[in-house]
Amino acid sequence: MPPEGESSHPPVCDYEGSDYQASFWDQGGREYEDAVEAIALKRLLPKNGALLLEIGAGAGRNTLRYRGYDRIVLLDYSRTQLQAAQARLGNSQRYIYVAADVYKMPFVAGLFDAATMIRTLHHMADAPKALREIRTAMEPGGTFILEYANKRNFKAIVRYWLKRQTWNPFTREPIEFETLNFNFHPAAVRAWLEAADFVIQRQLTVSHFRIRTLKRLVPHRLLVAMDALMQPSGSFWQFTPSIFVKTQATGDSPVAAEGAFFRCPECGHELPLKADDYLDCAGCGRHWEVNDGIYDFKTPLNS
What we know:
Elements: H1 20-26, H2 31-44, E1 49-55, E2 69-76, H3 79-89, E3 95-99, E4 112-117, H4 127-137, E5 138-149, H5 154-161, E6 175-178, E7 181-183, H6 186-195, E8 198-206, H7 212-217, H8 220-230, E9 242-249, E10 278-280, E11 287-291, E12 294-296
Parallel strand pairs: 1-2, 1-4, 2-3, 3-12, 4-5
Antiparallel strand pairs: 5-9, 6-7, 8-9, 10-11, 11-12
C-alpha cells in the first residue's frame, strides 16, 4: 500500500469495453457464487433505507437485491458497464448512474445511509484510501457492507504448505496475484475499517465450496444450502476465498444538507443535481458531462 499521505493517485482498474457480466457471470459457470453472495447480502443489509451507494456496480448484477431502498446510486469507473446496467434496469428515477473514481467520489459528505462494495476492493491498490473515501460519503450510523478476497483461505494455505506457492497467506500485506488484483488478510481489512471509523458488526464466510469439481458433481441447491449453513462461522474464523463484513459508520461527521448531492471531485465544491448536458462547477470552472442519463466524473469536458 502507498505510504500514509502519499500524493500520487493510485492506479484504477477500468472495465471499459469488457464483457465481464456475460463472460464471467452469465456464461462462466458461477451460479453457485452468485447464489451464496445473494444469501450473504440478504443476511447483512438492512431491509429498507433511503439512499444506497453501490460501489463497483458493474452491469447491475446485485442492484435488484436492494429492493428495500428508495434510491440507488450505481457507481462504476466504466461507462460501458453502467450502460449495461441501464439496459438491465432502465432509466427509472430510482437509479442514478455515476461514472467516477472511488478515490475521488463526487458526493457531498454524509449523503448515504447505506453502501455496498462487492467484488471491488480486490482492485484497490490503496484499499485504506478507498475505505476512507467511502466513510466520508456516509452519514453516521449508516450501514456499509464490504466483500473482499481473502488471502488467508484454505486453498492458499495448503498450497503454501506444499510449497506450490511462494507467498505466505499468514502475513498481513496484500498479495497482487495479477495486475490490480489483490487478496487481503482479514486482520488487515479489519484494521483499515476501524481506522476509517467503521465498526464491524458481523462477518460471514462465503464460497466455502468454490472448487470446480465440487460444483460439477454436487447438486447446485445442495451446495448453496451447505454454504448458507456455514456462513455464520465467519464470526469465529475466516478461511474462505470471500468474506462479507457488515459495518456501521461511526464518529462525529457531517450529514448532507437537504437537497445536496454532488460535489466536484477535483475541488470539492457542491454541484447542482439537475442538468441536461453537464454539471457546472462554480468553484473551479470544470464541466462534468451528463450523457444519456450517466453522470460522468471521469474526465471534465474542459480538461
